Amino acid sequence: MSDNLELVADAALALEREQRASLAHQLIASLDEQVEEDAAAAWLEVIERRVREVESGEVECCPIEEVLGRLRQRLQ
Predict the structure, then answer these.
(1) Spatial distance between the Cα atoms of 49 and 58, rounded to a whole number of angstroms
(2) CA–CA separation, 25 vs 32, rounded Å?
């Protein structure tokens, strides 16, 4: 570990538990920025495709109660 990284790690570990959690969240969020952008674009493509499928009649929608009922039956 580099000297700077070791100093930062030691300082971070000396923080209160809540402060360490906040710092960890900030660090992880800084790593996820590109992933979130890519994921958002991928989800947008899926949403647009699903809308086209519903609007064209290719797929049929079901009430949420029916879907949840089927899922509950599978879990039993």
Answers:
(1) 11
(2) 11
pTM of the model: 0.44
Domain ranges of the chain: 3-75
- Residue 16, H or E segment: none
Q: Smallest Cα–Cα separation from 12: which of 30, 28, 22, 2?
A: 22
pLDDT tens digits for 6-37? Answer: 999 999 999 999 999 999 999 988 886 666 67
Calpha distance 72→60 (Å, rounded): 21
The distance in angstroms from the start CA to the end CA of the chain is 51
Q: What distance in Å separates the CA atoms of residue 8 and residue 50, rounded to the nearest whole number?
A: 47
**What are residue 16's phi and psi, to 5 degrees?**
-65, 160
Computed from CA positions of residues 54, 56, 58, 60, in that sequence, does the dihedral angle turn out positive or negative?
positive
